[in-house]
Amino acid sequence: MFADPILSGLTPLRLAWLALALIGAGVSVAYGPGLPKGQGAVAGATLALWCGVETTVRRNWAALLALPALALGIGCALPFYLFLRSARIG
Questions:
Q1: What would the pLDDT profile of 5-28 be if each residue is shown by its tens digit?
Q2: Is residue 47 in some structural domain?
Q3: Contact criterion met (CB below 8 Å) for 89 and 61
Q4: What are the phi and psi torsion angles at 39 (to 5°)?
Q5: What is the Cα gyration radius of the chain?
Q6: Is residue 5 part of a domain?
Q7: Could you tell me the end-to-end alpha-carbon distance of the chain, in angstroms, rounded to an integer?
Q8: Residue 7, in any domain of the structure
Q9: Residue 63 near residue 81, CB atoms below 8 Å
Q10: If DSSP codes are grouped into helix, strand and coil, which group holds residue 84?
């Protein structure tokens, strides 16, 4: 399989998270990410907090890679975080 722990164990669900993250990034690039407004800003802040707290508890440091993805919007960052989080740690 893959030597990289992030890509190891690509289950159908993990592939779905990755595909949704890529779609979210594509939509953001096509329409411009802009600054989040209202609910998008709250969702982004919530994801950043959740990502930080859960990453320190689980020691899954690779999941912090989702934070820069917030620049492309929550539609990219959330599925990308779920993809990274669902990897086996260990």
A1: 556 678 888 999 899 899 888 888
A2: yes
A3: no
A4: -65, -35
A5: 13
A6: no
A7: 16
A8: no
A9: yes
A10: helix
